[in-house]
Amino acid sequence: MVHLGSQITDMGAYHLVLDELIKLAADADKIGFDVKEINMGGGCGISYLGKEEWNRIKRKIADTRDATWANDLIGYNCNNEWVSEELYCPFTPDTFIQKLFNDTYTANRTFKERLEELGVPKIVVEPGRSLVGNAQVTLVRVGHVGTTPSGQNIVHVDAGVNHHSQNIIVPEQLHRMEIANDIDTAAGFETFIAGNLCYTGDLLCRIKNMLNSKPKRGDYIIIYDTGAYSDFFASNTNSFPRPAKVMVSKTGKDRVLVKRESLFDVFHRDVDWKKRNK
Ligand SMILES: Cc1ncc(COP(=O)(O)O)c(C=O)c1O
Question: Considering the entire predicted model, what is its pTM?
Answer without folding.
Answer: 0.87
